Amino acid sequence: MAESLPEHERILQEIESTDTACVGPTLRSVYDDQPNAHQRFMEKLDACIRNHDREIEKMCNFHHQGFVDAITELLKVRADAEKLKVQVTDTNRRLQDAGKEVIAQTEEIIRCRIQQRNITTVVEKLQLCLPVLEMYSKLKEQMNVKRYYSALKTMEHLENMYLPRVSQYRFCQIMIENLPKLREEIKEISMSDLKDFLESIRKHSDKIGETAMKQAQQQKTFNTALQKQNNVNYGRSMYVINGRVPEPKCEITSKRTLEEEDEHEEEVLTAHDLVDFSPVYRCLHIYSVLGDGETFENYYRKQRRKQARLVLQPQSSMHETVEGYRRYFSQIVGFFVVEDHILHVTQGLVTRAYTDELWNMAVSKIIAVLRTHSSYCTDPDLVLELKNLIVVFADTLQGYGFPVNRLFDLLFEIRDQYNETLLKKWAGLFRDIFEADNYSPIPVANEEEYKIVISKFPFQDPELDKQSFPKKLPMSQSVPQIYIQVKEFIYASLKFSESLHRSSTEIDDMLRKSTNLLLTRTLSSCLQNLIKKPHIGLTELVQIIINTTHLEQACKYLEDFITNITNISQETVHTARLYGLSTFKDARHAAEGEIYTKLNQKIDEFIQLADYDWTMSESAGRASGYLMDLINFLRSTFQVFTHLPGKVAQTACMSACQHLSTSLMQMLLDSELKQISMGAVQQFNLDVIQCELFASSEPVPGFHGDTLQLAFIDLRQLLDLFMVWDWSTYLADYGQPTSKYLRVNPSTALTLLEKMKDTSKKNNIFAQFRKNDRDKQKLIETVVKQLRSLVNGMSQHT
């Protein structure tokens, strides 16, 4: 109990000295203590309170008088304080009344100062915003007037310089959001302009190409004319075509060309004059500024490749007219002229590697197209115009730096085709000439007509010159016409060789090769066909042989003609020779063979008219009528052969006699002929005698002795054997070189003898009653047996 009292005092001291916020733990200790501690603590607390009350009372009693004095003093001051309050209130009222105007003015000043400060701030902000707005307005104006490249530059300035200063404003955010849209709009607009540009140049490519080709051709003509004018006295070749000497036109051409160049000098147009390239420049700059230049380059090149494929695709009917080819070449030239212009005025959009790749692709396609379409051309004039177009086309593009060697190589292929079309055309001309020819010597009534013929064909014959007019030239009208046409062919072939950038030697070689083709193939074929035609008779064939002889002699003049054109001497090592000699020799040999054939056919026709009575008892005493007609025909025919070379006429005569002999022998030995009487043999002998007389009359000069009569020796010995009935000699001398009947074959004799044996049996039914006839019949049977044994021996020996 005694211990708890000091503890309570301690707690009370803590409560008195501790902040009320921290008294909780102290009070909790009161409750955590011993039982009834709370009551004791409350008692102690009451005692403490009473103690403090006594101290307060003591203190109040001590200070009470001072308090009363202070109250008294306050009561005294109260009246003065009220007076002072009234004075202060009055002063305050008067001061407030006086300060109201000052306050109003002060507030006005403050408001003005605030406005001034705001205005200053606004001005400062406007000074920052106005350039932005001006630039944006400028941007809108540039967009309206389609100055897109400048608009992009303005956007760039806005984004980098102006907008960052005023990025906190709403309108700035709107601008920032609009700028990408404007860029896309510019890209779309510029791309649309580019598409319009691409469409425009696709439409204008042919005009651009036509202009470029025309300028290239004018420049080439001008240079050529200038060169000719400077070298007017050098290398001038004169040659005759169809008897005409062309006048030198160098000076006239030069003057005319120079005048034309002066007239057109101010009218020279370029691709830039014909097409507005600004869209592609703008588009390139725009995409470059936007950092998308590679996309633009790829798009441009892709579209141009597509256009190149379209340009290189020809119309199906291009080969029908030269205008089709001209339009095709103009479009291609226009395309590459535009690409060359783009290459030189832009950087990177078109590169030399790109144009070279595009050109190589185009050249391959062009060559394939020209090979295909030129193969359809059958008109040499069209092929020649195509060649001229290709030359101008190649020269034009070569002037722009494109390699054109493959095009000139293609011209050599087209040259072969041109020659083929020329050969076809000249084949028709030759056929027309041959059809119109009368195949008779050319009559000339006077000197003037003679000179006209000589001017067309190089004919020389001193003997003929000595004859008086009128006279006849040995060749027919087709010879000078053929010669003229061959020269025309050479000239036409020369036209293709011009402007091919080839040497005179190469041109000379081309002309000679093409002329050789004309002679060896075309003219030779026409001659061969002519010779084989049914309506060509012996007279015509003789004239054809004469004609080919003169044409063969004229070949050297054709070589001189080519030499005069090309100025290449025939002595040059690599100079080709004309093969006309072999052509005309072959034609002449064919004509000779045809003469032999037709002559034999005519003989066969006469032989078919033979009408022998093979059972006649005796001959008519004179030769058969058909044979006399045949001999008369042969005489008149061989008279025509006087202009032929001797060997040809002799061969024809020998061939005719041999064929006649063979035909007569076949008539005797014909298997369908069963019986022959001795009278028929005698008649046949009379016909053979006429043949021998014809052979001995020398129908064609040049035969020695009885050479021509030997053609009938087989018939003569056979008929002599039967006419003389010399069987004993025949059988005894058979096989001996000196035999009188050496040419009589046992099988031939047996066949004829059997025909006569059958006739003897049927016509002499009473022969068995006459001794001579019986002996003759026995002799025939004996001879037949011996002949059969000889024939069998020959077959066994064989």
Automatic annotation (TrEMBL):
Alphabetical list of Pfam families matching this protein: EXOC6_Sec15_N, Sec15_C
InterPro entries per the UniProt record, alphabetical: EXOC6/Sec15, EXOC6/Sec15_C, EXOC6/Sec15_C_dom1, EXOC6_Sec15_N, EXOC6PINT-1/Sec15/Tip20_C_dom2
Superkingdom of the organism of origin: Eukaryota
GO-annotated biological processes: Golgi to plasma membrane transport; intracellular protein transport; vesicle tethering involved in exocytosis
GO cellular component, one term: plasma membrane
Domain Exocyst complex component EXOC6/Sec15 N-terminal stretches: 44-213
Domain Exocyst complex subunit EXOC6/Sec15 C-terminal: 407-755
UniProt KW keywords: Exocytosis, Transport
Protein's job: Component of the exocyst complex involved in the docking of exocytic vesicles with fusion sites on the plasma membrane.
Family: Belongs to the SEC15 family.
Protein name: Exocyst complex component
